[in-house]
Design brief:
Elements (H helix, E strand, L loop, with lengths): L1 H4 L9 H31 L6 H34 L5 H8 L6
Helix pairs in contact: 2-3
């Protein structure tokens, strides 16, 4: 998803929505690298072998990234709702309607 959002015409969505999708993808990647990978290593070793500092950092990272991910999803849902409820106030639609007929 992150790679697809950087393509020129991959998504025909509002630029703000694409940016929020990118942020969600980055927070998911950080969670996988910082949370799931150390947990997998500790499960394979049957004990925590990565040290106390990484244990505390992993817990802090898990709570902060999950909170950020939920906030991004709330922003995405709210922005989609507002774009559906007020389509005339959307910047993309305003630009299309304000163009002269010769530019189309």
């Amino acid at each position: 998803i992150l790679y697809g959002t950087f393509q020129k015409h991959a998504f025909k969505l509002n630029k703000f929505i694409v940016t929020v999708i990118q942020h969600i993808a980055v927070s998911d990647l950080v969670y996988v690298i910082g949370g799931v990978l150390p947990a997998t290593i500790s499960l394979m070793a049957n004990t925590w072998v990565l040290g106390d500092t990484l244990c505390y950092a992993t817990n802090y990272l898990a709570y902060s990234i999950c909170s950020a991910g939920m906030s991004h999803i709330a922003v995405l849902t709210t922005s989609k709702f507002l774009l559906l409820k007020y389509p005339a106030r959307c910047t993309y639609h305003r630009l299309i309607k304000s163009r002269p007929e010769t530019c189309q």
